[in-house]
Amino acid sequence: MNYLIYLVFRLFVFLFRIVPFRVLYLFADFLYLIIFYVVGYRKKVVVANLLASFPGKSGEERMKIAKAFYHHLSDMLIESLKGFSMREQEMITRYRFHDTSQVNAMYRQGRSVIIVAGHYGNWEWAGIAAGNQMLHRPVGFYKPLSNPYIDRYMRNSRIQGRSTLAPITQTKETFRADYGEPAAFYMVADQSPSSPRLAYWVNFLEQDTATLHGPEKYAAMLNLPVFFAYVSRIKRGKYVVYFEPIALEPTQTTNGEITRSFMRRLEKIIIDRPDLYLWSHRRWKLHRNK
């Protein structure tokens, strides 16, 4: 059964390879109608998250954000599939890294870095695009899929240029591996931790929020500079990625400082353009133990 599902998946990848973006976005428009009006995919979660995050906005304003989010989610789905077959130059044109000079300066000093990001804009193309736009060797983390055939295909297709992909179950070993040159460890770090006991708590979008402390932990342990990467959507299928330093000398920061700084920066871009955030994620399912 796994192999059959894999063959169906590969068929979709092939179809997306030969169909141009302008046609795919027509399909995305149709997909939006299905997932919002017919299926109502996680609509209760989205509505609840928006209400808690923007209590000062009217119901009409929040619904406008919700609809725009589902439009973006539909685009993300087709962009993710299209990404498996995009050529290197097209990826660079559509997902451009802007001014990596500060990150590159760390490379010239022989220092690996950690790049943290959120589920904002298009995070799926980052690993593919980074291999051809960074001096550092990009190393990304992913959660292995239950279907071994699709997992192997996705892992191989996500590795372009000099990029490396590692399962999150091997995070410690991945950080300590020798890549022959300085590495840039990409971490999408706004997920909810598996347990309140493992969380560092911050105020984020009007809520007490459990956060992961992995990026800060490894930054301090290995003295790795930390940069925040945020994605600006220029138009459908075109993004620019900006980099901001969070901590160039992480061993000199206080406990929680890097995590708080990352979450503040992520919060700012969400407030500026909320529809590009992943509101369908059960981000606030954990509650602090009293």
Tag the structure with descriptive keywords.
290 residues, alpha/beta, two-stranded antiparallel ribbon
Question: What does this entry look like structurally?
Answer:
The chain is an alpha/beta fold. It has one domain. The protein has eleven helices and nine strands. It has helices spanning 2-18, 21-38, 43-53, 59-83, 88-94, 101-108, 126-130, 148-157, 171-176, 214-222, 257-272; strands at residues 95-97, 113-117, 137-142, 164-167, 183-188, 200-204, 207-211, 226-235, 238-247. The protein has a seven-stranded mixed sheet. A two-stranded antiparallel ribbon has the order 6-7. Helix 3 packs across helix 4 (59-83). It is globular, with a radius of gyration of 19 Å. It starts with a helix and ends in an 18-residue tail after the last helix.
As a percent range, the share of helical residues equals 40-55%
CA-to-CA gap between the ends?
Answer: 46 Å
Counting helices, strands and paired strands, the structural category is alpha/beta
**Order of strands across the biggest sheet?**
1-9-8-2-5-3-4
What does the average pLDDT come to? 92
Choose one word for the global shape.
Answer: globular
- In sequence order, what are the helices and strands, one letter per element? HHHHHEHEHEHEHEEEHEEH
Task: Give the domain tally.
Answer: 1
Query: Segments where pLDDT lies below 50 for 5+ residues?
Result: none
Rg over CA atoms, rounded to whole Å, is 19 Å
Number of strands: 9
Largest sheet composition: 7 strands, mixed
Total DSSP helices? 11
Strand content: 15-25%
